[in-house]
């Protein structure tokens, strides 16, 4: 999987996420399940900045997560703050792939990477629907 060195230009969108004491497991590092929570939070913030999708949220459309692959590269400890980079990978008619990297904000160490696929879904019709046209999509694409 993609393992990019930290570079502010690699990802279109960045989210700061503070590690909470409650995120730790009995081994005194962040539990692996929390990686998914951090990635989800960053994807939601990313989507909040894509205006075309915000317009369609009010019409009853949303993403349904259908696949996620996470590579856990390093342990995350407390206290720390993470930088989660989010960009776009492959785009289909109704699906889009998010490519993400989790970095320690201070050291810039790569802690984990992920690829997730979401399907644009019409809640009212209960079926996938075509993605809206996304302005600046080329700027959001992460090259591997």
Protein described:
The chain is α+β, with helices and mostly antiparallel strands. The protein contains 3 helices and 6 strands, in the order βααβββββα. It has helices spanning 32-48, 51-57, 137-140; strands at residues 13-18, 61-72, 81-91, 95-104, 110-122, 127-128. Strands 1, 2, 3, 4, 5 and 6 form a 6-stranded antiparallel sheet that branches. The radius of gyration is 16 Å and the shape is globular. The model has no long low-confidence stretch (mean pLDDT 93).
Can you tag this structure with a few keywords?
alpha+beta, 3 helices, single chain, 144 residues, six-stranded antiparallel sheet, 6 strands
What's the short version?
The protein has 3 helices and 6 strands.
Number of helices: 3
Helix content: 10-25%
Structural class: alpha+beta
Instruction: Evaluate the radius of gyration.
Output: 16 Å
Biggest sheet details: 6 strands, antiparallel
What order do the SSEs take from the amino end to the carboxyl end, as H and E? Answer: EHHEEEEEH
Which range does the strand content fall in?
A: 35-45%
Number of strands: 6
Task: Please describe the topology of this protein.
Layout lengths: L12 E6 L13 H17 L2 H7 L3 E12 L8 E11 L3 E10 L5 E13 L4 E2 L8 H4 L4
Antiparallel strand pairs: 1-3, 2-5, 3-4, 4-5, 5-6
